[in-house]
Amino acid sequence: MTAITNHMPTAELQALDHAHHMHPFSMQSGFEKKGARVITRAQGVWLTDSEGEQILDAMAGLWCVNIGYGRNELADVAARQMRELPYYNTFFQTTHVPAIALASKLAELAPDTLNTVFFASGGSEANDTNIRVVRQYWSILGKPEKKIIISRKNAYHGSSMGSASLGGMAGMHAQGGMPIPDIHHIGQPNWWAEGGNMSPHDFGLARARELETAIAELGEANVAAFIAEPIQGAGGVIVPPDSYWPEVKRICDAHDILLIADEVICGFGRTGNWFGSQTIDIQPDIMTIAKGLSSGYQPIGGSMLSDKIASVVGTDEFNHGYTYSGHPVASVVALENLRILEEEGIVDQVRDQTGPYLKSKWEALTDHPLVGEAKISGMMGSLALTPHKESRAAFASDPGTVGFVGRNHCFANNLIMRHVGDRMIISPPLVISKEEIDTLIERVWKSLDQTHESLKDQGLMKAAS
Ligand code: PXG
Question: Is the pTM of this model over 0.90?
Answer without folding.
Answer: yes
